[in-house]
Amino acid sequence: MTISDSLNAANAYKTIARQVQGVAGGDSDDTGSASGTQSGGGDFMGMVKKAAQSSLETLKQGEVASAKAITGETTLPELIQAVSAAEMTLQTTMAVRDRMISAYQEIMRMPI
Fold first, then answer.
1. How many angstroms separate the CA atoms of 85 and 25, rounded?
2. How many domains does the chain have?
3. What CA–CA distance (Å, rounded) separates 57 from 59?
4. The dihedral of CA 91, 97, 103, 106: what is its sign?
5. What's the gap between Cα 3 and its chain centre?
6. Higher pLDDT, 63 or 29
C-alpha cells in the first residue's frame, strides 16, 4: 500500500461520509414533518444511517491500522484484527447492496 493509496482511500471515506450526512440531514427534515403520518419511517432511516456510519468507521480503523503498521506503531495482531474487521464490513456491505438490487429487480418484474 502506498501513501497515495491511503490518501485516496481517506478522501473516498470523507466523500462517502459527507454523502451519508447529506442524505440523513435531508431526510430527517422530511420525517420530522411527516412523523404523524409515517409510523416507523424515521426508525428505518436511523438504522440505515447508523449502519453506514459504523461501516465507515470500521473501514477507517482498518486504514489507520495499515498506516500505523507501515510506520511500525502497531503490532501484527492489531493490524490483522483491524484489516479483518474492515474486510468483513466491506463484504457485508456488498452483500446487502446485492440483495437490495435483487429486491429492486424483483419488484420491477411484478405485474402492475
1. 28
2. 1
3. 5
4. negative
5. 23
6. 63
> Would you state the cell numbers that stand for residue 97, as one nine-digit string?
447492496
Q: Where are the alpha helices (DSSP H) in 1-112?
A: 3-33, 41-71, 76-109
**105: domain range?**
3-109
70 touches 1 (CB < 8 A): yes
More confident residue, 80 or 37: 80
Residue type, 18: R
Q: Which residue has the higher pLDDT, 80 or 9?
A: 80
What pLDDT, in 10s, does the model give residues 58-91?
A: 999 999 999 999 998 989 999 999 999 999 999 9
Rounded to whole angstroms, how far apart are CA atoms 20 and 53?
8
- Model-wide pTM > 0.70: no
Distance CA 34, CA 45 (A): 13
